[in-house]
Amino acid sequence: MGKDVIIACDFSSKEDCLNFLKKFKDESLFLKIGMELFYATGPSIVKEIKDMGHKVFLDLKLHDIPNTVMKSMKVLSSIGADMTNVHAGGTIKMMQGALKGLESENKQRPLLIAVTQLTSTDQESMQKDLLINSPIEDVVAHYALNTKKAGLDGVVCSPLEVEKIKSVCGKDFITVTPGIRFADGEVGDQARIATPANAKKWGSDYIVVGRPITQAEDPVKAYKQCVSDFVD
Ligand code: C5P
Q1: pTM exceeds cut of 0.70
Q2: How far is CA 20 from CA 115, 216, 226, in A?
Q3: Mind listing the pLDDT tens digit for each residue in 108-141?
Q4: Are 75 and 58 in contact (CB under 8 A)?
Q5: What is the pLDDT of residue 107?
């Protein structure tokens, strides 16, 4: 499995997204389509981006009763994404439902990963808002183990948690890490952050980078910086 930089295409229209992608000329990218773009454009955006030669991580973070998630994943399996996800907080049974839904079409399925705790959540908000009192690293490791038990391929987590997750779930268990910021960059609403170089050092498999690339003065340069710090 190769390391890669995934660009979070958090745009509210197809036009904004395609204008952004034009800057990259013939480069073949791994792009994350999240709720904002997917809800604005509908499922056809996935095929359109795949037809341009890019890979797609469809980040819809499903979280519902097992049957609903299973049936929704069955529908999503025909869209053609390379990676998709659910919330591990939906329980092992829900994650098993997601996998069953994706596999039911008998085609090569996308990678299925689970969000542990959002990288915008910190210890204090987890305790106060969610009434979860264990240390956040333990909660994340526990959710990761549940994800593995359910048969999924890996988790979305902070780069700060990769070493622990790999030690608990094994080195082949995939870690996809948002919360990436350059050393001198704006943090915004993220809480558990790291630089691309540290994400590499700690063993992350994919970094997900949104605003540090999409809002940069020169997005191509920022992307190349991520690739050279994380992949090369
Ligand atoms: O702009 P920024 O680099 O913070 O974007 C991070 C992206 O990763 C966003 O699209 C966000 O929805 C997503 N994400 C996250 N934390 C998670 C899961 C997904 O930030 N745990």
Answers
A1: yes
A2: 27, 11, 17
A3: 899 999 999 998 899 999 999 999 999 999 999 9
A4: no
A5: 73
Q: Which two tokens stand for residue 221?
A: 């340069």
- Of 62, 119, 207, 213, the residue with max ligand 1 atoms within 8 A of its CB, to mutate for a pocket test, comes to 119
Q: Is the minimum distance from the CB of 209 to ligand 1 under 6 angstroms?
A: yes
Alpha helix (H) residue ranges in 104-231: 123-130, 136-149, 162-169, 196-201, 211-214, 219-230
pLDDT tens-digit readout, 48-81: 999 999 999 999 999 999 999 999 999 999 999 9
Identify the three-state secondary structure at position 88. helix
Ligand 1: which atom is nearest the Cα of residue 189? Answer: 4
Is any atom of ligand 1 closer than 6 Å to the C-beta of 115?
yes
Pocket of ligand 1 contains residue 118 by CB under 6 Å: yes
